[in-house]
Every structure is written in structure tokens, then in C-alpha cells.
């Protein structure tokens, strides 16, 4: 177990640092009076049993985990609105302290399960006791509704060990569609509020 601790230590460091950095955006938006595209940020190092499971499932040799398992360090960024997702992706692409190595867009094209999220794999340098080590981390960017769905689907998958009964699967797909409509409805509401605010500001400006 001790060896896992040593192997995973830089990943834990990367998760901790990336959480602080991405949470920082929220505060920076707040002080400048702007709406933050980030609602909240979570992160985790993949638990050892999940690492072993996935390595087996994908036939990844354990000595190649650092290059072939991209989500040992995982960060999740939750947004209020679908539009915010690409704003967050833009912020990440523009950072100079990491390199984007891959992007997977499960929003334009959702997964068969109904899963939606935008995944960015980044290479992130960690300063370790043996010098700099560049590690891979996966950042998942999604709305609150996408997160709600994914969290529940993930725990059901865990409960049924990946064999969700067909009727439950069908319900989950309907739930994913409902989450999609909720996101659309919320975007529409935001748009209408924004237009109303613009009209109000314009009216006041005309009075001056
Ligand atoms: P955990 O427990 O979250 O760590 P693959 O695993 O083959 O689908 P790949 O190539 O490893 O995909 O990477 P990808 O596509 O970026 O997806 C990996 C992660 O995305 C998963 O990690 C989940 O966190 C999330 N994800 C992908 N598809 C689904 C889905 O259908 N439902 C839910 N709830 N989450 C999904 P892990 O390792 O599977 O699990």
C-alpha cells in the first residue's frame, strides 16, 4: 500500500493545486463584479481499487499507468449554464501553467448512456522532492444538471456492478433528456433576464 502512496503523491499534489487555482477564478470574478462561469470545483485522486479495475478493463499494464490512465488526478468544474462550459474551457486553454493534450466533447455528442460533460486532459508540472514531474490530469467541465445525472448514474452503476437492468437504463436515458431540457430552460431564462436588463438600462440611459 505504501508504494501506491508514493506513486500517487504527485497526483494528490496536482489535484490540490488545480482545485485552488480553478476556485481562484470564482473569487477573481467576484471582486471584479462579474458573473463567475464556475459554480464549484471538486477533485479527487482515483482510489486504488478503481485504478486496478480500470487497468484490468482497459488492459493497461500497471507500469504504464502514468501515461495511459489519464484520470488518476481528476478535477470537476461545475457551471450553472451550458454556455459557461466553453468559457471555462477557454480559461483552461489559456493558462500558461499547464498544457492541454486532449479534449473530449461529450456535450455536442453525448455518450450512449446519456452522459454529457466536456473533458480536458492536461499535462501539469508538479515540483516533487526529485525535481519537476509532469503528470496527466483530467478536468471534467459540466453543468449542475449534468453533474446531478452523472453522480446518480455512477452510483447506480456501482450498485449494479456495471449491469444496470434494462428498464432502469431506459429511465436513466429519459432522466438524461430531462436534465438536457432543464439546462435549455435555464439558459432561456437567463437570456430573457439579460434582455430585460438591457432594455431597462437602455430606457434609463434614454432618460438622461
Ligand atoms: P470514476 O469512478 O469517475 O473515476 P471510458 O472509461 O472508456 O468511458 P476514458 O477513455 O477512460 O473513457 O475517458 P473518458 O471518456 O474521459 O471518461 C472517463 C470518466 O468520465 C469516467 O471515469 C467518469 O468519471 C466519466 N464518465 C464517462 N462516461 C460516463 C458515464 O456514462 N456515466 C458517468 N456517470 N460517468 C461517465 P471512470 O474511470 O469511469 O470512473
TrEMBL record:
Keywords (A to Z) from UniProt: ATP-binding, Kinase, Nucleotide-binding, Transferase
RelA/SpoT domain location: 43-164
Single GO molecular function: ATP binding
Pathway info: Purine metabolism; ppGpp biosynthesis; ppGpp from GTP: step 1/2
Enzyme superclass (EC): transferase
TM stretches of this protein: none
Single biological process term from Gene Ontology: guanosine tetraphosphate biosynthetic process
Keyword Cell division among UniProt keywords: no
Listed Gene3D superfamilies: Beta Polymerase, domain 2, Nucleotidyltransferase
Database matches in SMART domains: RelA_SpoT
Assigned EC number: 2.7.6.5
Assembly information from the UniProt record: Homotetramer.
Family named by the database record: Belongs to the RelA/SpoT family.
Name listed for the protein in its UniProt record: GTP diphosphokinase
Organism for this UniProt entry: Sporolactobacillus shoreae
Lineage, uppermost ranks: Bacteria, Bacillati, Bacillota, Bacilli, Bacillales
Amino acid at each position: 500500500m505504501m508504494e501506491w502512496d508514493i506513486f500517487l503523491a504527485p497526483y494528490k499534489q496536482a489535484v490540490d493545486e488545480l482545485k485552488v487555482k480553478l476556485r481562484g477564478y470564482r473569487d477573481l470574478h467576484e471582486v471584479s463584479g462579474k458573473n463567475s462561469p464556475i459554480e464549484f470545483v471538486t477533485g479527487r485522486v482515483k482510489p486504488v481499487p478503481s485504478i486496478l479495475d480500470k487497468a484490468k478493463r482497459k488492459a493497461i499494464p500497471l507500469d504504464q499507468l502514468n501515461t495511459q490512465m489519464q484520470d488518476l488526478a481528476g478535477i470537476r468544474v461545475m457551471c450553472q449554464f451550458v454556455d459557461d462550459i466553453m468559457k471555462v474551457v477557454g480559461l483552461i486553454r489559456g493558462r500558461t501553467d499547464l498544457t492541454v493534450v486532449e479534449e473530449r466533447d461529450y456535450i455536442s455528442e453525448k455518450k450512449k448512456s446519456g452522459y454529457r460533460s466536456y473533458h480536458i486532459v492536461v499535462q501539469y508540472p508538479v515540483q516533487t522532492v526529485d525535481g519537476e514531474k509532469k503528470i496527466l490530469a483530467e478536468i471534467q467541465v459540466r453543468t449542475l444538471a449534468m453533474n446531478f445525472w452523472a453522480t446518480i448514474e455512477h452510483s447506480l452503476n456501482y450498485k449494479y456492478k456495471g449491469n444496470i437492468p434494462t428498464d432502469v437504463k431506459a429511465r436513466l436515458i429519459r432522466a438524461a433528456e430531462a436534465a438536457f431540457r432543464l439546462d435549455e430552460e435555464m439558459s432561456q431564462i437567463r437570456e430573457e433576464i439579460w434582455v430585460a436588463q438591457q432594455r431597462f438600462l437602455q430606457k434609463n440611459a434614454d432618460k438622461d
